[in-house]
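Dear colleagues,

As part of the handover before I leave the project, I'm documenting each prediction I ran so the next person doesn't have to rerun anything. This entry is a single chain, and its sequence is reproduced below.
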Amino acid sequence: MAKAAAKKSKVEETATRAVTVVKSNPNTLLIVLAVAAGGYVLYKVNQGVNTVGDAFTNSSGGSTLKEDLKLPPSSLSVLQAQLKANKLYDAFQANSWGLPGTDTEAVYNELRGLSHNDYVKVFEAFGKKSYNPITGEGSIGFSKLDLTEWLTAELSNSEFAKLRQILPNVF
């Protein structure tokens, strides 16, 4: 019990010191927050966008994806494709803990087992949705990206490599 009380008082003491430092140095806190935000933008740029300018605009014009008539037609109904598209969008909005960030396992689960033409149907159902490159969420006023662009922006290189294994005939 004595150890727990000592730990609690040290935590309270540290918290009190932190509050004092923040109150006496508000500009330092703003600088730290600005550096953190800038670092996050650079991280997102490094994940799938070529330049900082491209992080805020969709210069690619979107992906073009068409059904391959040489392959069997999609086995998904329009409703099934729309449900998958909605679940993918939800997976981009929050991770499995409900925090902002992509739930990559949910993305993999929705795309697992799709043929090329199935993916095309889901791609079409997804359409283009507004994308905020800083938060990775849909936001009004930002570029609209298609499903492939969302995947490219939200998945790291290693996560996209895993997606290629899951959908070898698509990517």
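The chain has two domains: 14-48, 71-170. Confidence is low (pLDDT under 50) at residues 48-60.

All the best with the project,
I.
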